[in-house]
């Protein structure tokens, strides 16, 4: 009876050790999977952020080019207006000088 109790205790201890070892292994596996998943998500987030930044940079660049083109057009228009104004004033000055000579 005592031997059977001792054997039962030893078997129970052995089973407990196996359960602990199994739990430790599962714990390691779960932690490793969690690390791998965290790394994967980190890479994905960084890649998405990089792509988003690139898209935003391209959009800003395009808007900058549009603004530059519009500024160039506005400047050309202003220069043309100034040229026309100068020509008109030149013509008026010539007419005044000619009228003074006559």
Summarize the structure.
The chain is mainly alpha-helical and about 100 residues long.
Describe the structure.
- This protein has about 100 residues and is mainly alpha-helical.
- It has one domain (about 1-70).
- The chain has 1 helix and no strands.
- The chain has one helix spanning about 1-100.
- The longest helix has about 100 residues, at about 1-100.
- It starts with a helix and ends with a helix.
- The model has no long low-confidence stretch (mean pLDDT about 95).
Range of helix content: over 70%
Number of strands: 0
The termini sit apart by 149 Å
Total of helices: 1
Low-confidence stretches: none
Structural class: mainly alpha
**In what range is the share of β-strand residues?**
under 5%
Largest sheet: none
Give the H and E element order. Answer: H
Shape: rod-shaped
Give Rg in angstroms.
Answer: 43 Å
**Domain unit count:** 1
Instruction: Summarize model confidence as the mean pLDDT.
Output: 95
């Amino acid at each position: 009876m005592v031997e059977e109790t001792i054997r039962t205790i030893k078997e129970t201890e052995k089973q407990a050790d196996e359960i602990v070892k199994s739990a430790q292994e599962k714990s390691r596996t779960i932690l490793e999977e969690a690390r791998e998943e965290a790394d994967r998500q980190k890479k994905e987030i960084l890649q998405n952020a990089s792509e988003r930044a690139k898209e935003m940079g391209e959009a800003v660049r395009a808007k900058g080019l549009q603004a530059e083109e519009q500024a160039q057009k506005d400047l050309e228009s202003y220069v043309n207006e100034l040229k026309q104004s100068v020509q008109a004033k030149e013509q008026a000055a010539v007419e005044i000088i000619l009228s003074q000579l006559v």
